[in-house]
Protein: cyclic-guanylate-specific phosphodiesterase
Organism: Hydrogenovibrio thermophilus
Amino acid sequence: MPQKNLIIPTLFSLLILSLLLVSIHFYTEKRTEEVTREKYENKALEVQNLVDTLIQGQKDKMTFIALSLAQDSQLKDALLNQNTQLSYQDYLKTLSQHSDLKNLWLHIVDNTGHSFYRSWTDKRGDNILEKRRDLQKMLQEPTVIETISTGIFDMTFKSSVPIYDNDRFIGVFEVIGKFNSIVEKLKSRHIESVLLADKHYRDQIKFPFSKRFLNDYYLVNGQAQTAHLQEILDHNLLTYSQSHHYYIDTADQQLISFFKLPNIDGEPMGHFFFFYPLDLIDVSSQQLKPFNLYIYTILVYLFLLGGYFYWANKNRTREIFEFNRHLSKTVDQKTQQLSTQKYFLQNVIDGVSDAVTVYDRTLSTSLMNHAARALPELKLSQHLLNNRDTVTIQDNEPPALKLAAQSFESGRSQKTVLHYLDPQLKKHYVELTTTPIKNSRHEVTSVIQLGHEITNYLDIQEQLQQQKNDLDFIAYHDPLTDLPNRILFLDRLNQAINQAQRNNEKIALLFIDLDRFKEINDSFGHNSGDEVLIVCAERLQSCIRKIDTVARLGGDEFTILLDALKSNNVIINIVEKIINHLSAPIYLGDDVFHVTASIGISLFPNDGQNAEQLLKNADAAMYKAKDDGKNTYHFYTKEMTEQAFERIFMENNLREALNRNEFEMYYQPQYDSNTNEIVGFEALVRWNHPERGLIPPQQFIPVAEETGLIVPLGRQIIDMATTAIAEWQRSGLTKARMAINVSAKQLRDASFTQTLSAILDKNQCLPEWLELEITESSVMKNTEHTIKLLHQIRRRGITISIDDFGTGYSSLAYLKKLPINKVKIDRSFICNLPEDKDDAEITKAIISMSQSLNLDIIAEGIETDEQRAFVNSEGCYMIQGYLYSKPVTYDDMTAKLKGEA
């Protein structure tokens, strides 16, 4: 076999070998990592199981001691006779010397919940029932209880057993032990420990033996290494342990496993971290050895390559033999085929579905297949040729003969199309192509004529044209309503503008948006929404003239082009007709839908010179119609454009203002009108723009709400306000709370509570120094979620108040569910007091309702003595308003608190 024929297979096999070796390398590395990770996970589980076993063993030992000592007759006699001559010090000393039970305490409680005996103090007789939920449970249903708690003795085991005297429950015997014994046992197994009590126990631990804390988590084992504490902080393991079983510290070569301990109510109590050296975990036996795999792979490769060379050489020899034998056979066959060439060609063309006819110079048919004989036109030509004496072609000759004659004369291909009816009267079309066949001297010796039926082709061409028409319709029409889409509408609008310019006419553009259509999709589904859109499209078409155009731009937005207007009355008539038709009920099955629309109108040439301006201005007018209460229409005005530019300016500058910290806080004090003392503050934000100066919140807060910038702005406000109140409180200038307004979007932000907690921790601001003001409308949006969130905030100790009360639509039922502390009467009810009777009655009702619900109440916007006197007479004494103080800066408020202003 030639050497060059082996080069490509050899190179290809080397490529395969290289890929295989690389795959083995990656596989062994990946498998080694998987085995190592599995070892680490097993070791972490082993440590966790060991801790669980040690805890349960400690509980069992202490329970056994408690059960044994509870049977002592001397103890029962002391309980029954209130004799305190009990001492277990020798017993505890013996346990400490001859067992691993060290640091144990004994506690006896009588059946009334009073402490009868404590091994660590002489104190007795105090009622501990109110502080001990496990003791309450024991007194209700005496039984053995094993608990773990955190308190004066750090984190302890506690085994409590009932004491009976002749089936009469007379008290409880408790054995208390520290966790330190478990720490020592783990250390003997090379396991270092950090035991933390959950952060909600911080206030409970008033006099711990060790005052070491990790953030808000109390350190149970005070002898824990400082390095381990720092590792927990550096790697954020308190958060990491919530979703993982262990952590590999590659820097210090340690396996850190986690163990969580719940309290008697199943709530978080203990967060344990165990440190185990990685070099003590044996992973070497599981390591794969890739070298052997490489050797075996190369040996197999060499064996297969040698086998391939042997097979290729043998196969090549066989191919040469077969080629020679086949060549001899082919020569014999060709000799035989030459003698039967015409017969062979006839068989070939008979197998062709197209008609094939070969004419000689006399126009006689030298070859003709079955398909040609079946065609009526060619059958007639064959009959004429067989019954004629001349080759002259007349004008009335069949087209097939005339086409063949033309090819002989011109020496070029000729084409024509024949048509005929079959017996079923179906029309057929056949394309005839006649091609001359020339000899070496370029003389035409014969022509071959092919007849190909093109009936199906023409049918397909017709279908394609129909599909093109359909695609054109789809490209320029809305698929749901069949109305013109944006592309077609803009084309017609541009044409109408050009024609109006030539004819000095007016056109009108109506921008229509369905009011609250999203509620239909959200409540009934998108299928119902689509059906409503179809009905609305039909109603819009019924309202316009034949020369006008209705289009759907997308969603629930429609546009109408009113062409060749003579007067504005035409516009008004059509618009009012649209509003009336759309507001009629829509019945779909058992459901009834009520749809209204807001319509904006722009005119050419008054409101724009091109399609883009007209659309933009009609859209602006539509939003004005929505602001006017919806279900109405509004013509575009220049003032609306200026408002739009002002909004764009506000939005763009707001983003930059957040980055440049241009917002400042002002503080308005809240007073007790009986004592004239400051009882609170409200934080009010101002925008100090570098060019416009101080911008009041009513100009930029609505824009921040609509754009979502209220969330980052709210974070800055909370940060600045909590910094101020924390400094005033720590300086002893005030004991009042800081009220901060929170919007609905802030409450819906998933990270709101985390952000609030982080800011309080950063500024060292206690929750009880803070009050969050929410509006009625923010509560009523996603009510259940808001109530749940407010309960979480209230449990932290933060006060919650309802701002602008009386202006929303909350029901008394929802108000009772809210965890609120205070109600603020809106200034809109205060400003006309006491002259306006309606405002006076509303104010009285709010005060009365708040008092019945035991809520604090404050009146804002008090500017006159008459207003203050009125609310005081109804029982509201907390006041906020210009009568006492305007909002002032931090420095001015600090001076006021110091008595310097």
